[in-house]
Amino acid sequence: LTNHHLSYIKRMSTLLTPKDVSKILQLRYNKILALIKLGQLKAIRIDKSFRITEYDLHDFIEKNRYKSRC
């Protein structure tokens, strides 16, 4: 496996809690749960808990990156 593949595997296997994500994005915990429930932030449901992969968090950030019209 190449370093790129190993990096991808690591990002897919690292799981963050909604609380972790709320700290990273500096948003309220309830806002993160709302984004998950709206389908805007992908998450894995484990019993009654959610987990977000680093890959999905990165994807969410890129999809919501502000693009100026200028």
The number of E-state strands comes to 3
Low-confidence stretches: none
Taking strands numbered 1, 2, ... along the chain, how are they ordered across the largest sheet?
A: 1-3-2
The biggest beta sheet is recorded as: 3 strands, antiparallel
Helix amount: 40-55%
Key attributes of the depicted protein:
single chain; 70 residues; alpha+beta; 4 helices; 3 strands; 54% helix
Q: How are the secondary structure elements laid out?
A:
Layout: H1 3-13, E1 15-16, H2 18-25, H3 29-37, E2 44-46, E3 49-53, H4 54-63
Antiparallel strand pairs: 1-3, 2-3
Please provide a written account of the structure.
The chain is α+β, with helices and mostly antiparallel strands. It is built from four helices and three strands. The protein has helices at residues 3-13, 18-25, 29-37, 54-63, and strands at residues 15-16, 44-46, 49-53. It has a three-stranded antiparallel β-sheet. A hairpin with a 2-residue loop joins strand 2 (44-46) and strand 3. Helix 2 packs across helix 3. The longest helix has 11 residues, at 3-13. It is flat. The protein starts with a helix and ends in a 7-residue tail after the last helix. The model has no long low-confidence stretch (mean pLDDT 91).
